[in-house]
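Tutorial handout. Part one gives the primary structure; part two gives the three-dimensional structure as tokens.
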Amino acid sequence: MEREIIEMFLKHLTLQGELPLGDDAGALRIGEEWLVATNDMLVRKTDVPEIMTPEQTGFKAVTMNVSDIAAMGAEPIAFLFSIGIPSDSDMEYLEGIARGIGRGSEFYGIPVISADTNEACDLIIDGIALGKTAHLLRRDGAKPGDLVCVTGDIGRALAGLKVYSEGIEVDGKTRKALYEKLLEPRARVREGLMLGPHASSAIDISDGLSKEIHLLAEMSGVRMIIDSERLPVRDEVFEVAGMLGMDPLAIALASGEEFELLFTIPQSELRSIDFEFSVIGEVKEGSGVYILRNGVPEEMPVLGWEHLGGRSDGNLHV
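Part two.
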């Protein structure tokens, strides 16, 4: 339903900026640079696990917006927010939210330049981040011959949520590794800035790697082939999947709010990238997304989170 609602609004929002709506952020050209702006809403009911502290919640509200700026190859320069507060909210909880937003502002080195409060039926933090760049990254630039890459690792956020929600017993080291990604994710700002002049397309992983790959392929008008054996999935994810009787690959592809960067890049530009990443596939002519399992290609299902629809994290065909 989320996609249908977006498409319905787009029919009426005909006056758009130089960059049409539909990317991680919007952008306006100012001189030789682009002013990049995004807004991303955090709602306690859907975005905040019960084990997440108020401070972690506030920090996440900043991170999720800064991550969109990073995906555009931009340097974050400011943060703004509006917060909806239930009338029965505890002041100590709200102060934790404030500390978290303040810590996020300091961590990413961006000032808070405006804020607003109002009453709401749930805790809602609607953040806005601003950025600037001379090299704008978009979702629609992937070309046949490019490589498909991703920063960091994938799957820990959803695996951590499964550990909590299913009451799974794991050792302290495993729990710490999973909860680190679930409760305290970080936006890939340095990586986004470095990718700006070199990558052909990019998107941050907020709704799940599978869903983001499908978006890049669709918006770029290309086919993408992903090698399951090259996906950066840590042992902790395999451990949790085994305990639940789930496909670890499905967890990795469906895990949202990773805030890693998925990007495509010409092979000739790889030497220009000075950070750790994994090459997970390649771009071909055509359409659709396919995943290789034991060398056999199959259509990749769209796994991940969709607002107003929930999560799809079922098993892939073997």
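Part three, for discussion. Residues 311-318 have pLDDT under 50 and may be disordered. The chain has two domains: 2-133, 147-312.
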